[in-house]
Predict the structure.
Amino acid sequence: MKIIVAAGFTCLLASGCGGAASSSDGVDSKATPTGTILPQRLDQPDTSPDLEADAPADDAPFSKQLEHELSVRTLKMAQGEGKATAQCPSDIESNKGRTAACTTTYDGLKIRWDVTIGDTAAWSESYVEYKATPSTGIITKAGVAKLLFGNYKGYIDYALCNNIPKATLVPLNVETKYKCEVVDKGKKPTGFATSTVRATEAGPRAY
């Protein structure tokens, strides 16, 4: 069987079953910034890194199919160059109600995934639903750069941030300590952060 998304579950092949705007308030735009300039500069990144994990054979064991899917989801969170690996119990089966704890690793950082196997897909008995919840999120410097240059495409010159690591674990869907200022083309930094970075399962977000 294979993997799909349905009713809040993702489905898995059960093989082995057989530019920020500025306000004008009369202040001289050439005035000396009063904020503290953020120390880390992010320039145009590679916007199309290979984020796809190597797929297993169609007849690979169910555990290998699941490991591949979790590796892909980890890379999607990171949105940076690199490789993700995964480890699930080898005896996990595609039977409804089965649960397991799997672990993915990206750049030495480990994420626990709590997995529950669901129903067989209504449109194909070759697919089975599964739900996997990560214990934490990932923020990468490359992923934030990719996000900001994508959001402000054509307007951004560079971004300044407060020293985002190459990769770090952070809670999902909450504000982190990492902040950035987008500097438009032809402009100078103000020293004030315009975005706070968050980790989501779909990759970093900044607002």
Summary: The two ends are 40 Å apart (CA to CA). Confidence is low (pLDDT under 50) at residues 16-29. The chain is about 15% helix and 40% strand. The helical segments are 62-78, 141-151.
